[in-house]
Amino acid sequence: MSVLIETTLGDIVIDLFTKECPSTTKNFLKLCKVKYYNGCLFYNVEKDFLVETGDPTNTGKSGQSIYGLLYGEEANHFQDEIKPSLRHTRIGTVAMANKGKNLNDSRFYITTKENIDYLNDKHTVFGQVEEGLDVLEKINSFFVDSSNKPLQNIRILHTIILDDPFPDPQGLEIPNQSPRFKKSEQDTLFEADEDLDKENKNKSKEEITEMIDEKAARSRSELLEMLGVLPTADIKPPENVLFVCKLNPATESEDLEIYFSQCGKVKSCEVIRDAQTNESLCYAFIEYSTKEECERAYLKMDNILFDERRIHVDFCQSVAKVKGRGDHFKNFLNRGKSNLRSTSTQHIPSGTKGYDFVFDDDHNRDHSSSSSSKKIKYDNEKKSDRDRRDDRDHRDYKKDDRYSNRDYKRDDRDRRDDRDDKHYSSRRNDDRDDRNYSSSNRDRRDDRNYSSNSSRDYRDKRDDRDDRNYSSSRRDDKNYNSSSSSRDYRDKRDDRDKR
């Protein structure tokens, strides 16, 4: 008694222990027969432990047995059939994933490890994987998230009963064909059998690069559509218009048209000019009657010498002149401003490093004369206002200048008076210093003379006194020798002088 389970990674064949576990195996076989397991995910993959499935809600919290389907919710759970001879000893052991004792329904698991004694006597073992262990190993090796759910969907696609020994119970409805699988909108994961690189299969590197560039261009077009620049992302530039750049500023549209007409009929040729200064911006657009003429001109005219300039020719990538497309572009540039004055052909700076955008409005072209007259009137009014403002500023300047000259003269006079006062005060101080210096010199000179006279008087007095003393000593000391007396006298005088 066996069941073939087709999964997204391969086939698994399970042999059932119908004699040891009749209720459990009957429940499993009849659920396979009514295609109950079709589309179920392997929602719990614990590496080197087990893989779990059998819940149509793919949450691991629900499931119905065949008895619940036939007899109602009261009969949903059935008894355990735990046998001592059936243990978790081999890889590929199939057992019921119950919610507790005697609470079996539709969920089951397959072990990916040998000798898991922890699960013995808790879960009913009712089968063994005999074929497809390599598929089981693939499931076991899948990457999972924090809740052990695989990051790619691994599903049971079909269940095929190879041998069923149990008769069908009364009221069992067997579908004629497997139900069509429909993926839920909330399910955002890729399927395990989905080829994520199928777009690049059997393609060269150049083809893959071209495909990537096309996707990038499509993304840019959709962005411009969201910004309001393009009416639709599918819009394409015209195929019969050439873009010519690096022109000589002196080149006129008529000269360019005559030269490019040798490749075909030129419907229009326009050198783009600045809206304010009317100076050439050194690039132009040339429209041909057919695409073939445009391609011929591109091949012949690119990189030629025209008006002493080496010009560059390319296919036009602008959709500004496509009929009925100009309003979207102008609305994007105006940003809601209604006071933008534009002529029939207006140059709008784009702020990019490349060439600026140009648009041509048919409505403005029809009313170019009125727009020009309004612009001239507006410029004249601005010029008159500017002249009046300049006159008023000039009068104010002259008035301010008169007052400023008067203040300057007053300030100059005050500075001159201050300078004279300072000079007079300086002279007075110098005279006073000279007088004081002369007086001090005179006093010092008098003091010096007085000191000299005093010294002279003192010496005279001392000599007189010495003479008197000497005479007296000679009278008193007649026995002394004159030399000794003189020497003694000198010594005494020196001592006296020192004191």
TrEMBL record:
Protein name: Peptidyl-prolyl cis-trans isomerase
Family classification: Belongs to the cyclophilin-type PPIase family. PPIL4 subfamily.
Keyword terms: Isomerase, Nucleus, RNA-binding, Rotamase
Domain RRM stretches: 240-318
Chain intervals for the UniProt region annotation (Disordered): 339-499
Positions of the PPIase cyclophilin-type domain: 6-161
PROSITE patterns per record: CSA_PPIASE_2 (PS50072), RRM (PS50102)
Reaction equation(s) it catalyzes: [protein]-peptidylproline (omega=180) = [protein]-peptidylproline (omega=0)
Compositionally biased spans, kind Basic and acidic residues: 376-449, 456-479, 487-499
Enzyme Commission number, as recorded: 5.2.1.8
Subcellular location: Nucleus
GO CC aspect terms: nucleus
Keyword check for Ribosomal protein: no
Principal location: nucleus
PANTHER family reported in the protein's UniProt record: PEPTIDYL-PROLYL CIS-TRANS ISOMERASE-LIKE 4 (PTHR45843:SF1)
Skewed-composition ranges (Polar residues): 339-349
Function: PPIases accelerate the folding of proteins. It catalyzes the cis-trans isomerization of proline imidic peptide bonds in oligopeptides.
